[in-house]
Amino acid sequence: MEKAIRIDQIFKNETAHLEKEVTIQGWVRTRRDSKAGISFIEVNDGSCLRNLQVIADRSRPELESVVERLATGCAVQVQGVVQASPGKGQSIEVHAERIDLFGWADPAVYPLQKKRHSFEFLRTIGHLRPRTNTLGAVARIRNRLSFAVHQFFQKEGFFYVHTPIITSSDCEGAGEVFRVTTLDPAAPPAPGNPDGNVYSQDFFEKPAYLTVSGQLQAEIYALALGKVYTFGPTFRAENSNTSRHLAEFWMIEPEMAFYDLQDNLELAQSFIKYVISAVLDDCQEDLNLFARFVEPTLMETLETLVRETFQVITYTEAVEILKKSGESFDYPVEWGTDLQSEHERYLTEKKFRKPVAIIDFPRAIKPFYMRVNDDEKTVAAVDVLVPRVGEIIGGSQREERLDVLLKQMEIKAVPAEEYQWYVDLRRFGSAPHSGFGLGLERLVQFTTGLGNIREVIPFPRTPGHADF
RNA sequence: UCCCCGGUAGCUCAAUCGGCAGAGCGGGUGGCUGUUAACCACUAGGUUGGCGGUUCGAGUCCGUCCCGGGGAGCCA
Question: H helices of A126-260, where?
């Protein structure tokens, strides 16, 4: 293969490439002809949002024979010289010496056109949608965020831990689970086998599930390595059809020994600010696309997040604020119940207009592993809310006291025998520790302003959909 | 899962009170031009999501199913 230069590298230093010969490889976005003389071919190679304009002199038969076939979607390689462009809209262009057509795309049936498509339609062509401006920009921003996650934790001295995808505990208090089995539901094991236990014939010889969280296992490593994080796929079998839920998504879960809730909160704040800053610094072109065509307030929201300190309030204070707000909510605000979406949106979008961290939730509405506060009515939990998306982070200080944890498990009806290893962590060298979970897709939604989570993951899995 | 809205040409959409199914873009053909969502002319393209019903007549009204979107719950 010819050694090609990526288009973003040319745009990064245009003057250095002037009058130089380059080879580019990519896909034709548009072709405009000047029958008398030349064709204008815009090529995109995915390295950046912008296309590079290629000029082809059609009086040269070897070019004409290729150019006449070029249509939107064709894969090409172009060799030519970078020159200053006399036209408007671009400062440089490539004057083609040679054009190779690798893969033709029949314009009569190629689904992508030189026009706006609806996101719904693009979802039906998941194999082609990353070739659009918007979905390409999503992919680059998602990549930058993911890389920034590792950069942040590595510079802070965290270790990346791979927690299991398959687990055998199903009651972690985080929703419905997918079963993992090699048994054939169309031909289940015959009843009445010797021990009467169908799972004895299954692969793991007991019920197994796809993970809903790596937190409990991350706690194991936090209590050995000090500071760890997980970043991997997570699964929820909830039958929820919303613009904010996926059956398969990517979650980031840091877990830190010797961190209390306050330390946890400070980490969460510096973490979000770091990854958003990375995108603001390195993805300006892509962000501008979203600010122009998707969410006009995008830049202001992102810059506010980076600049301002998060508002921290207790759950009890939040309830008081909501009751005094004078807003007419569809759902009543009452201490002891979960805050509704409308309540969260009021706090972060109207009242404080920036990220809001709510701490110290009622014990009754939070999972067993959260640390019970001295008032015994609340737990050391934190939810971080951001405008448009709502809850982006959920975390807590974990209950490190053996007796209190056992009591919590009893109250929440969590079978202690299944969590012997988890309880053991409190029995042997227990230490205060904390952590939180952040859904990558929610973060990408927040960063791009896209309303539907199905646009921010390459291949969305939702109830009734596991295509591509 | 619940509530609301929608499904019309390849795509984005229109069609008044129930009365001949349309436009733009895209495709094809021809023309024109250092073009920029190029432009001009001509042209092809439809079981109006499926099934059933009301009616002289249904894209339009009724029932039902399927699919999509928005919102809610649950959560990240």
Answer: 133-155, 215-225
| DSSP secondary structure of A87-100 | SSS-SEEEEEEEEE
For A257-269, letters b (16+ CB in 10 Å) and e give bebebeebbebbb
Residue nearest to nucleotide B36 (CA to C1'): A89
CB A328, CB A373: distance < 8 Å: no
User: At residue A283, what are phi and psi to the nearest 5 degrees?
Assistant: -125, 40
Q: Which domains does chain A have, with CATH numbers?
A: 7-110 (2.40.50.140), 133-177+212-455 (3.30.930.10)
**Residues with Cβ within 8 Å of residue A19, at least 6 apart in sequence:** A81, A82, A83
Chain A window 310-369: residues with CB closer than 7 Å to nucleic chain B are 331, 338, 340-342, 344
Cα angle for residues A118, A122, A125 (degrees, 5° grid): 155
Taking CA atoms, A360 is separated from A80, A396, A412, A464, in Å, by: 63, 9, 18, 37
Two tokens, residue A264: 């946890």
Using the structure, give the distance in angstroms from the CA atom of A464 to the C1' atom of B66, rounded to a whole number: 13
Burial of residue A191 (CB within 10 Å: 0-12, 13-18, 19+) is: exposed
Neighbours of A376 (CB within 10 A): 9
Q: What are phi and psi of A410, to 5 degrees?
A: -65, -50
Between residue 45 and residue 104 of chain A, the positions with Cβ below 7 Å from nucleic chain B are 53, 55, 71-72, 85-90, 93, 95
ipTM: 0.83
Q: What does each of the 468 residues of chain A score in pLDDT, given as a tens digit?
A: 888 999 999 999 999 999 999 999 999 999 888 766 788 999 999 999 999 999 998 888 888 888 888 888 999 999 999 999 888 788 999 999 999 999 888 888 888 887 778 888 898 888 899 999 999 999 999 999 999 999 999 999 999 999 999 988 765 555 688 889 888 877 777 665 566 677 888 888 888 899 999 999 999 999 999 999 999 999 988 888 888 889 999 999 999 999 999 999 999 999 999 999 999 999 999 999 999 888 888 999 999 999 999 999 999 999 999 998 888 787 888 898 889 888 999 999 989 999 999 999 999 999 999 999 999 999 999 999 999 888 999 999 999 999 999 999 999 888 888 889 999 999 999 999 999 999 999 999 999 999 889 999 999 998 888 888
